[in-house]
Specification:
- Keywords: Cell inner membrane, Cell membrane, Membrane, Transmembrane, Transmembrane helix, Transport.
- There is one protein chain.
- With 362 residues, the chain is mostly helical.
- It has one domain.
- The chain contains 18 helices and no strands.
- Helix 1 crosses helix 5.
- The protein is globular, with a radius of gyration of 20 Å.
């Protein structure tokens, strides 16, 4: 059954690479241009998954539970993680799929993200992380705090997201971009040449996120999509050789890397790209901070901002908000603030850096 994690991961990596679905760009767009199109796409994933997950829970396929809310670590860790993904040039899944495209900067960010996730969860920083995460309040879910049925929140979220999507779909389309003549036909053209839409990509990811729950539970891993824990487990396995840490989630993240490579190779987008010195330093530092921040917050943009939000966990929604704040702080410091010109002079504006830190297509 573990192989289902690999299959879901391959599909997820493929879809994210072809759809350019990196959450960093969605959050950064809010601060740079005020554009909410990709944030709306991200919310579509949450809304679709929420409907599916609570349906699975109602049918008894899975059983949702909650625990006290570690508010202090969630706030601090989410801010650190949000700040770090701007440095690294991508969130956790964005780093995985860009590594599959051949971006060496993403390879470095991914290595240090996994390493410092392990250091924070089971290594030298684990006691400090555990202590900070021990500062909790009993409240755990939004519907629990409000004293309402979670279905009321599911319905409200679905209506709000549908309204946002309708707003974007009704806007006057921009002038079409010039494209090369199609070289493939039929399904091959749709999969590997045609530009994928933000909302259609989000719908597919939402379905995959729903499927992850029962498939993961069938193996004894009672969770949905997750990146930080499995990345940490890979490091622990390589260091200690403990095969018990190789679970459904590990197969998932390996699959994401493979799926992204398949998509990039088949679409002609795979190319090994060496970063300049500044991007290298930022990728390493960003990856390390990602691992620490995600461990403190209890998850990354997937585990917290996409999965825990879908089940209306307070940890998920608070982390979602503070990740956006962290992205805003880093954007101000490195992209739109006074240091922009200085960084550009140091090489930030080079073609290598642009490829490493490209925004998602809007």
């Amino acid at each position: 059954m573990l192989v289902t994690g690999l299959l879901i991961g391959i599909a997820l990596g493929f879809v994210m690479q072809r759809g350019r679905f990196c959450v960093t760009g969605a959050f950064r767009d809010l601060w740079v241009t005020g554009n909410t199109r990709w944030l709306t796409a991200f919310l579509i994933v949450i809304a679709v998954q929420s409907v599916g997950v609570f349906t699975l829970d109602a049918l008894g396929v899975i059983s949702l539970s909650s625990s006290p809310f570690p508010w202090l670590s969630t706030i601090g860790g989410a801010f650190i993680f949000g700040f770090a993904i701007v440095l690294a040039g991508g969130c956790a899944t964005g780093t995985y799929y860009r590594a599959g495209e051949g971006l060496v900067g993403s390879w470095l960010a991914l290595i240090f993200y996994a390493l410092f996730s392990a250091v924070s969860k089971t290594g030298a920083l684990a006691p400090a992380v555990t202590a900070i995460r021990g500062v909790t309040v009993e409240a755990s879910t939004v519907h629990g705090v409000l004293g309402v049925s979670p279905w009321l929140l599911v319905a409200a979220l679905a209506v709000a997201v549908a309204a946002l999507a309708r707003h974007h779909l009704r806007r006057r389309p921009a002038a079409p971009m010039a494209t090369l003549p199609a070289r493939k036909r039929g399904i091959a053209h749709l999969l590997f040449e045609k530009q994928w839409g933000a909302f259609s990509t989000a719908l597919v990811i939402g379905v995959l996120a729903i499927l992850a729950w029962p498939l993961s539970w069938a193996t004894g891993r009672e969770a949905g999509l997750g990146i930080t824990g499995p990345s940490s487990n890979i490091v622990n396995y390589l260091v200690a050789g403990d095969a018990e840490v190789i679970d459904w989630g590990v197969y998932l993240v390996i699959g994401i890397l493979l799926g992204a490579f398949i998509a990039a190779k088949a679409s002609g987008e795979f190319r090994v790209r060496i970063p300049d010195a500044l991007t290298t330093v930022r990728s390493i530092g960003g990856g390390a901070l990602m691992g620490i921040g995600a461990s403190l917050a209890g998850g990354c943009t997937i585990g917290n901002a996409m999965v825990n939000t879908a089940t209306f966990q307070l940890q998920g929604w608070v982390a979602f908000g503070f990740m956006i704040v962290g992205v805003g702080a880093a954007t101000r410091l490195f992209i739109t603030g006074p240091s922009k010109a200085r960084l550009a002079a140091a090489g930030q504006g080079s073609a290598s850096t642009a490829s490493e830190h490209e925004s998602m297509r809007s």
